[in-house]
């Protein structure tokens, strides 16, 4: 980049600079960054540091730091069964959720990529869930998954999977609640991920596909040898954002299950909310926040380490 | 001839299958619309039905449109999502402009600071942010809801990429012609990044429209609630019956669905023309 | 060139200024003005000096919310109009959500965001009972001779809203837990439909008789329930005198420091009896709100609040779905007392410095406490009438004659009147502690841990939560 050089050239051509002008030139790059920086500091770093301080202190219910306790909260939180459970639930959820959240929309993108009869219609249908908000989605699925009058159980009964009245109470069953929530989350995010991936798949150069055709490659071979490598930056992007979304999951838990049954859907952020906010235990809630942050951070670091191997940038 | 026919038949089968898949994926949406037309008895009946008895049963819709605050919730959400999206774009593009075209002391540190916000999710810093907003007297205000969403690290990153595609010789030439930074920014950078802007605006709009926990906490007055918060609060008004909630969901969905149905292909094209590339 | 420079400066100034402009313009417009205190409000006028809007946050849902709205509308169009008081009823989410909001406001010290009246359950009251903004009802009663006669109020409910011997809130939506059962199923199982189980041991035989299986799967559960604080608040104290879940009289005499029920054997005794019920295999032990399953025939019996009465009568009894039977909550054993605990919520007044709003709130509360309004509330919900004189009103008497199921509520109230300390506890982190206890008992119910482990887990976890609080906040 030769920006500073170009500025200098321009300055020479334009003639002498006044002192004021020099100051403006010097400040300019900072002025452009300043607005976003103010908000970044005010609503990310300041609260983050405050959360960090809380996590190292005893904090009373007025939110005042009573005393500094060092790493006591951190050492303590890992002996709390509820928090360890929340870590487990979060990891399990992420594990259930992320593969589906990447593979399903990618498959849809492959399907929608071919132009065919109805393709405009089903491309729109695939993207449509994007228009639905989280809480609306939650209500719709709550109704669909209703133990008695839900269509899902009715359908299963009709096809003969469950032929008695005590159908599965999807959202209130220790085994099924978390998978149900991950399906709901996948549905909520499927539209946007589908569009991102469709755009990427459409961008695969035709020449590559044609030359593969000439070599007589089968469809799946083309997908694995050409489409996936070329779209890998987008797949990686979707993977990372969905991983963070998985680790930070809380709204479906809050609206549908309240962490139950028996804490089987109590995620880390839900723990932060209940302990830190609802119960006013700010020290513990902040500690849980920081641990969640670290977990996401470590996961992303891993991703970026792997990125160098697996992701192909052209 | 015969192979052609087989290929054609195969293609039709594939199309029909894809269409069926599309219908399955969009089914929850369709179902919500249908439920909006159901009276209480149909809604609770067993075996459950997909279709209402009667498509002329408008009581739920009337109730939502005229006796509830749902229209107001929608306006609130719309305003918040649009303003946040615009502010985000502007702030991100300004910062990206600086990072793409200037060399200055602390550039890398500043860039890292801004990208680092990606790692600090709003959910994890709820409590101190609540206190900040409250101390500024911004509880129950639009700005209070919006302020925490103005920074988008992903956008800064992507706009920087996008601006970097503008060659520095173009910029030099423009400056020789007397063009200034702002003019260059508005007349060259923005038009060049149109596709990125489309994709990121959409992403941002949806993300903000969808937020739940933060608006729930900072709004105490019904007239300030967003759609997300508002519909979870509707349960109280409706005699414990959920059919009107579905009418509300349907009404809330209508505008976004229309935008998607018509704009969706342009959006894909917008993303495709080069945003999420390395 | 010069123009460009000016533009650059202009934009950066505008950008930074806009941040502040943004703040300024959105300042809450109708924030509570802290006017100079009306000089002699304490002894003088007990009505607001100017028209006033009273904000009332509540957490009621369904038919009960409708009834509350009706009451408020009636007040606004009658008494309210006369006195220039408008009550603004706002649903603020369920008890937990509403209390979370309130604690956030108090923590941020944002007094002008406080409601004037708030309906709060045991979940929220602990954190605010000593707040500087709460204005005890006792103060109103002391200055307003024609206000509310505390002797008229349901004594147990009044006790519920008292702290350290002082009336903190106005009892409002208080209820007790009771047993509802399906008489048709009783008949089908060969049981006398007019005789309900009275002890847990009897309950076990009933559950066994009523449970219907088809193959391995259960078609009808004998009982749908969840052992939460609302139930333990009856089952623990009924085992003797001065039995509490927590020390410091369940938090009514100070912050609880430890669990009492794990040490004095009451929890162990209850669980021993409860295991007999669980052993039948016919208990669905994880449902907070079994009403829907009861209606659909999934449960032959359920434990639910008296406040479910109105909806059960209208949705099941009056529609002829089946014949509903009602009874008191079964006793732990034959030696238990006949008292049933009380739970629910009360109304609390917050004082952010505006005397008019405070007095407006008081006037509305006096209206709520009249026999007529209390009676309406009772008839349309199943909550106790806060003013016991309501039961003597002719319309209430006629109503009970027509809806004899309601008699059970009077029976429970009558049998419990000597036991005013059977209450839901006031503890820090109420919902967390309640959830912990529920979850441990569910683990016992599933058979994944034994009774001793259950009790020691409850003891360990709950005491840890209490210790967290005490370490940070002191006694």
Automatic annotation (TrEMBL), chain A:
Note the InterPro entries from the entry: ABC_transporter_permease, MetI-like, MetI-like_sf
One GO CC annotation, please? plasma membrane
Please give the Pfam families that the UniProt record associates with this protein.
BPD_transp_1 (PF00528)
Q: Which UniProt keywords apply?
A: Cell membrane, Membrane, Transmembrane, Transmembrane helix, Transport
Membrane topology, as annotated, equals: Multi-pass membrane protein
Q: Which residues form a coiled coil?
A: none
The chain positions of domain ABC transmembrane type-1 read 87-303
Report the PROSITE patterns cross-referenced here. Answer: ABC_TM1
Annotated GO biological process: transmembrane transport
Residues making up the signal peptide according to the UniProt record? none
Judging by the UniProt lineage, the source's domain of life is Bacteria
Q: Spell out where the chain crosses the membrane.
A: 30-49, 93-112, 124-145, 176-201, 226-249, 282-306
Where does the UniProt annotation locate this protein? Cell membrane
Matching PANTHER family: ABC TRANSPORTER PERMEASE PROTEIN (PTHR30193), INNER MEMBRANE ABC TRANSPORTER PERMEASE PROTEIN YCJO (PTHR30193:SF37)
Q: Which family does it belong to?
A: Belongs to the binding-protein-dependent transport system permease family.
Protein name, UniProt field: ABC transporter permease
TrEMBL record, chain B:
Where would you find the membrane-spanning parts of this chain?
12-34, 78-102, 109-131, 137-159, 195-214, 243-263
Annotated GO CC locations: plasma membrane
What are the entry keywords?
Cell membrane, Membrane, Transmembrane, Transmembrane helix, Transport
Keyword Transmembrane helix belongs to the record: yes
Q: Where mainly located? A: membrane
Subcellular localization is given as: Cell membrane
Q: Where is the ABC transmembrane type-1 domain?
A: 74-264
InterPro entries per the record? MetI-like, MetI-like_sf
Q: Name one GO biological process term.
A: transmembrane transport
Q: Which Pfam families match?
A: BPD_transp_1
Give the record's membrane topology: Multi-pass membrane protein
Gene3D superfamilies to which the protein is assigned, alphabetical: MetI-like
In the record, the note on similarity to other proteins reads: Belongs to the binding-protein-dependent transport system permease family.
Q: Which PANTHER family match?
A: ABC TRANSPORTER PERMEASE PROTEIN MG189-RELATED-RELATED, SN-GLYCEROL-3-PHOSPHATE TRANSPORT SYSTEM PERMEASE PROTEIN UGPE
* The name this protein goes by in its record: ABC transporter permease
Q: Which organism is it from?
A: Ruminiclostridium papyrosolvens C7
UniProtKB/TrEMBL annotation, chain C:
Q: Which InterPro entries match?
A: Bact_solute-bd_prot1, SBP
Tagged with keyword Signal: yes
Where's it mainly located?
Answer: other
What's the short name of a Pfam family annotated to this entry?
A: SBP_bac_8
What are the subcellular locations of this protein? Cell envelope
Entry GO terms, CC: cell envelope
Judging by the UniProt lineage, the source's domain of life is Bacteria
Q: Does the keyword Signal apply?
A: yes
Swiss-Prot/TrEMBL keywords:
Signal, Transport
Question: Where are the annotated coiled coils located?
Answer: none
Q: Which residues form the signal peptide?
A: 1-17
Membership in a protein family: Belongs to the bacterial solute-binding protein 1 family.
Q: What is this protein called?
A: ABC transporter substrate-binding protein
The root-end lineage is: Bacteria, Bacillati, Bacillota, Clostridia, Eubacteriales
């Amino acid at each position: 980049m030769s920006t500073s050089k170009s500025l200098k050239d321009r300055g020479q051509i334009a003639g002498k600079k006044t002192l004021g002008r020099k100051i403006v030139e010097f400040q300019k790059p900072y002025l452009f960054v300043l607005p976003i920086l103010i908000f970044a500091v005010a609503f990310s770093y300041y609260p983050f540091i405050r959360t960090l301080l809380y996590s190292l202190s005893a904090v009373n219910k007025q939110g005042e730091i009573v005393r500094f306790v060092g790493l006591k909260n951190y050492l303590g939180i890992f002996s709390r069964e509820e928090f360890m459970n929340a870590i487990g639930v979060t990891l399990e959820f992420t594990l259930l959720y992320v593969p589906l959240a990447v593979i399903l929309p990618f498959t849809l993108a492959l399907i929608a990529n071919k132009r065919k009869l109805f393709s405009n219609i089903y491309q729109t249908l695939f993207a449509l869930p994007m228009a639905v908000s989280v809480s609306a989605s939650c209500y719709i699925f709550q109704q669909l998954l209703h133990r008695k009058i839900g269509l899902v159980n009715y359908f299963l009964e009709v096809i003969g999977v469950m032929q008695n009245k005590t159908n599965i109470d999807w959202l209130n069953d220790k085994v099924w609640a978390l998978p149900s929530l991950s399906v709901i989350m996948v549905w909520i995010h499927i539209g946007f991920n589908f569009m991102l991936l469709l755009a990427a798949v459409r961008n695969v150069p035709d020449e590559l596909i044609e030359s593969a055709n000439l070599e007589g490659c089968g469809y799946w071979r083309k997908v694995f040898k050409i489409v996936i490598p070329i779209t890998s930056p987008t797949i990686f992007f979707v993977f990372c954002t969905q991983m963070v979304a998985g680790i930070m999951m809380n709204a479906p838990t809050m609206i549908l299950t309240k962490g139950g049954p028996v804490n089987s859907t109590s995620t880390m952020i839900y723990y932060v909310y209940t302990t830190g906010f609802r119960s006013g235990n700010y020290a513990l809630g902040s500690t849980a926040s920081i641990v969640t942050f670290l977990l996401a951070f470590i996961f992303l670091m891993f991703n970026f380490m792997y990125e160098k191997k697996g992701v192909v940038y052209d | 001839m015969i192979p052609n026919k087989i290929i054609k038949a195969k293609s039709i089968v594939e199309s029909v299958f894809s269409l069926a898949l599309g219908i399955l994926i969009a089914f929850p949406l369709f179902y919500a619309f249908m439920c909006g037309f159901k009276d209480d008895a149909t809604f609770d009946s067993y075996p459950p039905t997909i279709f209402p008895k009667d498509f002329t049963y408008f009581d739920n819709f009337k109730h939502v449109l005229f006796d509830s605050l749902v229209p107001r919730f929608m306006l609130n959400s719309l305003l918040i999502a649009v303003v946040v999206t615009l502010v985000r774009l502007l702030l991100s593009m300004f910062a990206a402009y600086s990072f793409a075209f200037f060399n200055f002391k602390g550039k890398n540190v500043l860039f890292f600071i801004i990208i680092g916000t990606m790692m600090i999710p709003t959910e994890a810093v709820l409590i101190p942010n609540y206190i900040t907003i409250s101390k500024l007297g911004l509880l129950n205000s639009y700005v209070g809801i919006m302020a925490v969403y103005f920074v988008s690290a992903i956008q800064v990153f992507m706009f920087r990429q996008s601006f970097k595609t503008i060659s520095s010789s173009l910029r030099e030439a423009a400056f020789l012609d007397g063009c200034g930074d702002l003019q260059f920014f508005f007349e060259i950078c923005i038009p060049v990044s149109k596709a990125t802007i489309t994709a990121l605006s959409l992403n941002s709009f949806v993300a903000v429209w969808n937020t739940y926990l933060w608006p729930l906490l900072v709004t105490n007055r019904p007239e300030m609630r967003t759609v997300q918060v508002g519909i979870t609060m509707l349960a109280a008004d409706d005699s414990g019956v959920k059919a009107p909630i579905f009418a509300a969901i349907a009404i809330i969905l209508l505008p976004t669905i229309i935008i998607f149905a018509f704009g969706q292909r342009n959006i894909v094209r917008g993303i495709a023309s080069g945003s999420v590339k390395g | 060139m010069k123009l460009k420079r000016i533009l650059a400066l202009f934009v950066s100034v505008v950008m930074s200024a806009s941040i502040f402009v943004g703040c300024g313009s959105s300042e809450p417009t109708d924030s509570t003005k802290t006017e100079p205190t009306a000089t002699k409000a304490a002894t003088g006028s007990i009505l607001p000096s100017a028209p006033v809007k009273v904000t009332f946050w509540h957490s009621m849902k369904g038919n009960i919310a409708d009834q509350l709205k009706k009451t408020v509308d009636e007040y606004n169009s009658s008494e309210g109009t006369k006195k220039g008081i408008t009550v603004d009823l706002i649903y603020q989410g369920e008890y937990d959500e509403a209390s979370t909001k309130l604690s956030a406001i108090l923590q941020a010290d944002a007094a002008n965001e406080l409601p004037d009246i708030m309906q709060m359950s045991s979940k929220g009251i602990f954190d605010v009972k000593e707040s500087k903004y709460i204005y005890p009802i006792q103060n109103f009663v002391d200055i307003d001779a024609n206000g509310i006669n505390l002797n008229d109020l349901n004594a147990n409910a009044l006790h519920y809203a008292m702290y350290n011997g002082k009336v903190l809130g106005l009892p409002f939506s208080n209820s007790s837990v009771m047993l509802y059962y399906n008489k048709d199923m009783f008949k089908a199982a060969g049981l006398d439909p007019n005789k309900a189980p009275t002890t847990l041991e009897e309950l076990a035989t009933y559950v066994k008789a009523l449970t219907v299986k088809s193959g391995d799967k259960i078609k009808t559960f004998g009982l749908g329930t969840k052992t939460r604080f609302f139930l333990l608040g009856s089952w623990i104290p009924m085992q003797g005198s001065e039995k509490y879940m927590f020390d410091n009289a369940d938090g009514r005499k100070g912050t609880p420091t430890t669990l009492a029920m794990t040490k004095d054997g009451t929890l162990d005794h209850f669980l021993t009896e409860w295991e007999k019920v669980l052993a039948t295999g016919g208990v669905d032990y994880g449902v907070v709100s079994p009403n829907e399953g009861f209606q659909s025939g999934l449960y032959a019996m359920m434990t639910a609040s008296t406040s479910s009465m109105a909806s059960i009568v209208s949705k099941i009894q009056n529609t002829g779905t089946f014949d509903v039977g009602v009874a008191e909550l079964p006793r732990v054993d034959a030696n238990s007392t006949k008292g049933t605990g009380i739970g629910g919520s009360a109304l609390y007044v917050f004082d952010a410095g505006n005397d008019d709003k405070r007095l407006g709130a008081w006037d509305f509360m006096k209206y709520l406490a009249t026999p007529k309004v209390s009676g309406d509330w009772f008839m349309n919900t199943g909550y106790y009438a806060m003013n016991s004189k309501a039961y003597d009103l002719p319309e209430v008497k006629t109503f009970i004659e027509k809806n004899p199921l309601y008699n059970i509520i009077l029976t429970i109230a009558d049998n419990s009147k000597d036991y005013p300390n059977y209450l839901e506890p006031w503890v820090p982190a109420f919902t967390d502690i309640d959830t912990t206890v529920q979850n441990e008992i569910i683990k016992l119910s599933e058979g994944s841990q034994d009774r001793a482990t259950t009790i020691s887990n409850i003891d360990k976890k709950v005491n840890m939560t209490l210790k967290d609080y005490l370490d940070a906040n002191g006694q």
